[in-house]
Amino acid sequence: MRILSRISVLALALAVAACGAPRGDEAAIAACKSRSSAAIGGPFQLTSHTGAAVTEATFKGRKALVFFGYTYCPDICPVVLFNVGKAMEDVPEDKRPVTLFISVDPARDTLETLGQYIRSNGFPKDIVGLTGTMDELKAVNAAFKTPGFARGEDSDSAGGYLVSHASWLYMMNEDWTLDTFFNDTASPAEIARCINLLS
User: Fold this and answer.
1) pLDDT digits (tens, 9 = 90+) for 18-41
2) Which of 47, 139, 166, 175 could join 146 in a cystine, given CB atoms 3.0 to 4.6 angstroms apart?
């Protein structure tokens, strides 16, 4: 009888614990939210590919995906932006964030070059190219707590040189606070899932 009683108590305890444990969408939301931070994504001042001066306030009121890269980037940048474009297919139009592509190669990425690049097939339709002076770009990198960026040595490659840079994709909320981030291997499905869960 005591054994049955103990089993009953244990079963009840497990049932209560299970009821309080996050599952399904709750667990998925918690996983996405576990990467949030109020310390990432401070103020910045840059220039859009259209020539307009913009700050973080320009994009408040709507979620934004932020990615640092450059137009001569041989692999990571186009893959991440293509994956974002694919992810948007699974996000309702009214939930789709604007995508901000911040160039870390101001010497080659002119406004015209940026404008042509972001219109690449497969990239998000709602994408804004951003650039600035070296000081402005260093400031926005610091605001996002990235390792920074650095120009490599000249080479015989088509681009002439490579630029090392952070390859995380940041998702900012409407108040310009980090909701979550993705590494460069995140699939379109993973990106879309977090956007939908956090919207």
Assistant:
1) 333 345 578 888 888 888 888 899
2) 166
Q: Pick 43-198's CATH classification: 3.40.50.300, 1.10.3720.10, 3.30.428.10, 3.40.30.10.
A: 3.40.30.10
Bridge partners, 29 (sequence order): none
Structure tokens at 144: 């996002």
pLDDT computed for residue 37 by the predictor: 86
User: Average pLDDT, stretch 136-142?
Assistant: 93
Q: Residue 65 in contact with residue 125, Cβ under 8 Å?
A: no
63 close to 174: Cβ distance less than 8 angstroms: yes
What is the number of other CB atoms lying within 10 angstroms of the CB of residue 54?
17
Q: What is the mean pLDDT of the segment spanning 117-139?
A: 94
Pairing outcome for strands 98-103 and 127-131: parallel
| Torsion sign (Cα): 166, 170, 176, 179 | negative
Domain extents in the chain: 43-198
pLDDT tens across 94-110, in order?
A: 999 999 999 999 999 99
